[in-house]
Structures are given as C-alpha cells and as structure tokens.
Design brief:
Blueprint lengths: L1 H29 L3 H28 L3 H12 L3 H12 L5
Helix pairs in contact: 1-2, 1-4, 2-3
Length: 96
C-alpha cells in the first residue's frame, strides 16, 4: 500500500508542476489556453485519486491527523511531495 501511495503522490506532484510551470505560462505568455484545460483535468483526476489513496494509507498505517494534514498541505505546495516521499522511503524502507 505504501508503494501505491508514494507512486500516486509523485505522479500527482509531477502533474501539478507541469500545470504550474509549463501549462500556465503557455496560457498567459502565449495566450494558448488548451494546455491548462487538459493538464488541469489530468491533475484534478490525479488529485482525487491521491486523496483516496491517502485516506486508505492513513487508515492502514494508522497515521495521525497531523500527518494526514501535512500530506494534504504538502500536495498543495510545489516540490513538497518529493521531500515527503524521501522521508516515507526511509521510514518504510522494508516495505515492497
């Protein structure tokens, strides 16, 4: 379960970075809105999936409310999912 959570968090984090740093500049600099439309949709679906996997992982691993809040807030801030993933990788090193 932890590996599914980690993979989901990384993919969701990458989609967020693409939306923020590629699609949005294309929209506002070159006046081409399509990348935001499509990557916004992709990111939205991935975010919903991420939240579902987060809830399942939190229940399975009995994570505290504080930890869950940190992971939710971390998914909103660019680059934070990668930092959190590094910590999870250390914590659950034996899990495959």
């Amino acid at each position: 379960m932890i590996n599914l959570y980690r993979k989901t968090a990384i993919i969701e984090g990458i989609s967020y970075l693409i939306l923020l740093f590629i699609a949005m500049p294309i929209k506002y600099i070159f006046d081409i809105p399509e990348p935001v439309k499509y990557f916004g949709w992709i990111h939205g679906v991935l975010f919903l999936f991420y939240m579902a996997v987060l809830i399942i992982a939190a229940v399975n691993y009995k994570w505290s409310i504080k930890r869950i809040v940190i992971y939710v807030m971390g998914s909103i801030l660019p680059f934070v999912p990668f930092i959190l993933d590094k910590n999870l990788k250390k914590e659950y090193a034996q899990a495959k």
